[in-house]
# Entry
Amino acid sequence: MTLAEMIQHARICYTVNGVFSLGPDESINKVVDRERVPNARGVYLIFRSDDLNRPLYIGKAGTLKTDGSWKEQGLKKRMTMKQGGVLRNRFFRDLMTTKGYVGLTFLWFVTHDQNNNIIPAFAELEFLQAHYDQHGCLPELNGSA
# Structure
């Protein structure tokens, strides 16, 4: 399955989903509030706004513990925390400035709620696998799986 097919499949399976853009002068914290991103368990993909074919990052929000409980970090919180030890508000701003990106586009999907029972790590790995199958590597900001 290509990444585009995986995204289409996710839009059908995970009916609570969304998309928003972040400009270089915007705060990720304010944008996730404005866009009403839920603090629910799921996955998200970050793209350059001018290239929606190849994500820069694929991530998850919500970690299942061995006892069946969850770490408290949903999509809204995860998107605004840290990346590489830097608060994401600054990280995204610096990324767009240094790379010359006109903006970033975020896709998000709630994978574990009253309608779905998919562990976010599983959904994240499916997206990573689709990316790997198509491009032979991981997204540039993912590091290692």
Observations:
- The chain has a mean pLDDT of 94.
- The chain is about 35% helix and 20% strand.
